[in-house]
Amino acid sequence: MGKGSFYLTTPIYYVNDVPHIGHSYTTIAADALARYERLKGRDVFFLTGTDEHGQKIHRAAHASNETPEALVNRVVERYKFMWKGLSISNDDFIRTTELRHTRRVQKIFQRLLEKGDIYLGEYEGWYCVPCESFWTAGQLTGGNCPECGRTAERLKEANYFFKLSKYRNRILEHIDSNPQFIQPESRRNELRNRLLAGVDDISVSRQALPWGIPVPMDPGHTIYVWIDALLNYITALGYDDETEKFNRYWPADVHLIGKEILWFHGAIWPAVLMALDVPLPKKVFAHGWWTIEGQKISKSLGNVIDPLKITEQYGVDAYRYFVLREVPFGMDGNFSYTMLIHRINSDLGNDLGNLLMRSLTMIEKYFDGKVPSPQGTREEGIDLVEDAARLEAEVDDEMEALQLSLALEAIWEFIARTNKYIEESKPWVLAKNDRSALSITLYNVAEALRLISIYISPFMPQTSQEMFCQLGIPEEDHIQRSERCWGRLRPLTKTKKGKALFPRIEVSAQPV
Known about the structure:
Layout: E1 5-9, E2 13-14, H1 21-39, E3 43-51, H2 55-63, H3 68-85, E4 92-95, H4 99-115, E5 118-128, E6 133-135, E7 153-162, H5 164-177, E8 182-183, H6 185-196, E9 202-203, E10 205-207, E11 214-215, E12 218-223, H7 225-230, H8 232-235, H9 243-249, E13 254-258, H10 262-275, E14 284-287, E15 290-292, E16 295-296, H11 307-314, H12 316-325, E17 333-335, H13 337-367, H14 379-400, H15 404-425, H16 427-433, H17 435-456, H18 461-471, H19 478-482
Parallel strand pairs: 1-3, 1-13, 2-3, 3-4, 8-14, 13-14, 15-17
Antiparallel strand pairs: 5-6, 5-7, 7-9, 10-12, 11-12, 15-16
Helix pairs in contact: 2-3, 5-6, 5-10, 11-12, 13-15, 13-17, 14-15, 14-17, 15-17, 16-17, 17-18
């Protein structure tokens, strides 16, 4: 990846309901990636936002006896509040009801119409309101939407259509010549097979739907919510009238999405960009779904979890760590309170928290709380230094591949290696007969902790900050807080041993 600009996005979330674990997963993953790229010196632009138009929103507002404007304004604040509570560091938050978005969407629609890639026709078929998706009769499953399983509605109306079929072969060629474009590989194969089966032109407007962006030359139509939503990735950059920002960040390095919306991002979105003569994003990564204690997340089952309720009881960083470490990124995962508590007690408490506490306790006991000045090297410390040197490349490679769980695994292997180094070196023995060796050992341990603080910072920013504080590294010392080369910790730094990072939780502890 290297230095330069880096643009990544989450999907913009549909505001017919409150945010849940699935929304938080995508956004936390994007945040970890954004923070990691900033750590490497990249000029990062991290975008998230909300999708606020469409029939589903209109019906939800009617059902709650409020206007669509009131509904979206109320729910949007829940998203913003959650992202703040989860330490999300997005650079922008776009709403599809904002003027900067709506006016650019209308201009794009007009351009595609004038180019001949959008035309007026008649749609007759099936429509799923919850998914805001059009389906043919052959795609339905027993008359129901193949994605969500709910009843599809029969539609017959005059609509504007986009010539998706015109771009099918070009999209297939791009997928075949750019294997990293759609990830993971299993999703790429699914998308490719669907394209090979043939595609029809798609409806890109709805008639007599009052809650949406009006078609500029025909205000009796509103622009199809998915076209409206997909364009946010370029309207947020000022496409068409703020070229400096657009040219600085586009094409996107990564679109992070859930696997259920891959068709829109892997087929429709590339086709629209091709029609606009805009370069395609470098990567679309479709991750898996979460279940709760083995059950599908469902309002009817009553198991929809507010992530902030989890963080109130177990901590923000513990939650961030769990969702990123527990499941290989791209696969489906299961949220379990038992496994969350196990991760907190084992990985965070025993491995990381105990390492920090025992190390600072020894520095306090043997060197009056000051990081000792190492005099020379010792054989058992050489492996630790070499492991630290290898860690940078290992984590870089895993983050490049968006394997966040494996990046964390590599970091925790280094934590284990540091704990083992203490056992091998036996500082409590050295304190009796070899102060010089003791100073080398405890400096190495403190420097390993500095590096660990850096590596965990994208995933667990609050914990990283607390570790820096306990190590005595001031916030303004950017070198010690970002430099991943060994030996940057300044000797005689006054440590400030504080509270245990992750106190043990009883397995019987019940969720809020």
